[in-house]
Specification:
- This protein is an alpha/beta fold.
- The chain has a single domain (21-259), classed as Vaccinia Virus protein VP39 (Rossmann fold, 3-Layer(aba) Sandwich).
- The chain has eight helices and seven strands; from the N terminus they run ααβαβαββαβααβαβ.
- Strands 3-2-1-4-5-7-6 form a seven-stranded mixed beta sheet.
- α3 links the parallel β1 and β2 (89-94).
- It is globular, with a radius of gyration of 17 Å.
- It starts with 36 loop residues before the first helix and ends with a strand.
């Protein structure tokens, strides 16, 4: 590892080389997404799509940091850790080799490292991390895979540690937005979003784990769609919307929890 921190590793699991079926039950090939695709949107898209990613990460960062040692599962091209984990020792993991290579090249440093997952075991010892984030990840997995993931997350999260997650809100106007995105965007969600959550089903799912919910609600209402009127105005509305984040009608759900045991 190139940084000064050496995360305790668990025993490696036995698995055939290149076998990511357990991580990807739907069979979608995430290596077909261009390397750094979403990071380039974050950095260079002045419109709605770029505002969406910038405002999403900015809000979730307020729930996640500060933290001593953080793990971002499903980190993609490393945008969240690269821009919002300042001063926090962090590790990002993902199954997509091209995205991990991009993340390590662009954002890897003495405090942040990126690791490709080879199977459904998080390669860290028990009770390693002070906080973990799952940012729009759980909708990409079926329920069996979600249970495996959550078991691993609970294993590597310290007692008293924080788990922050977000996912599309299928009780909102998200299904309409997703339909529109699938029609016009370069990357479609048709084969990616295989488990759909509402506020009630997300809460029911989390009850199976030793987690105490600290904050929950939804975010991203209209602010990203105001980006064509000006970046400053769109960001001002996004900050205003945070006052209503306890409500359940916005496009993305979030939950901030504490591990109780």
């Amino acid at each position: 590892m190139p940084n000064n921190f050496q995360a305790p590793l668990s025993e490696p699991s036995k698995q055939k080389d290149g076998d990511t079926k357990a991580l990807n039950p739907a069979g979608y090939d995430y290596d077909t997404i261009p390397s750094g695709y979403y990071d380039q949107i974050f950095l260079n898209n002045p419109g709605i799509q770029g505002a969406w990613h910038r405002q999403k990460f900015a809000f979730l960062a307020t729930l996640t940091f500060p933290s001593k040692l953080h793990l971002d599962v499903g980190c993609g091209p490393g945008t969240f850790l690269g821009h919002f984990a300042k001063g926090t020792q962090s590790i990002g993991v993902d199954i997509a080799s091209d995205q991990i290579a991009y993340a390590q090249t662009h954002y890897g440093n003495q405090q942040v490292e990126f690791i490709q997952l080879q199977n459904d075991v998080l390669p860290f010892a028990d009770s390693t991390f002070d906080s973990i984030s799952l940012i729009e990840l759980i909708e990409h997995l079926d329920l069996d895979q979600l249970r495996t993931l959550m078991t691993e997350v609970m294993r590597v999260l310290k007692p008293g540690g924080k788990l922050v997650l977000s996912t599309p809100n299928y009780r909102s106007l998200w299904p309409l937005l997703e339909w529109a995105i699938n029609k016009i965007a370069h990357v479609s969600y048709d084969e990616q979003h295989i488990t759909q959550f509402t506020p009630a089903t997300l809460e029911a799912f989390l009850k199976a784990y030793p987690l105490q919910i600290q904050k929950r609600g939804s975010f991203l209402w209209v602010a990203p769609f105001l980006a064509p009127l000006g970046k400053g105005f769109s960001n001002w509305v996004a900050k205003l919307e945070r006052h209503f984040s306890h409500r359940q009608e916005a496009l993305l759900l979030y939950v901030c929890t504490i591990k109780t045991a």
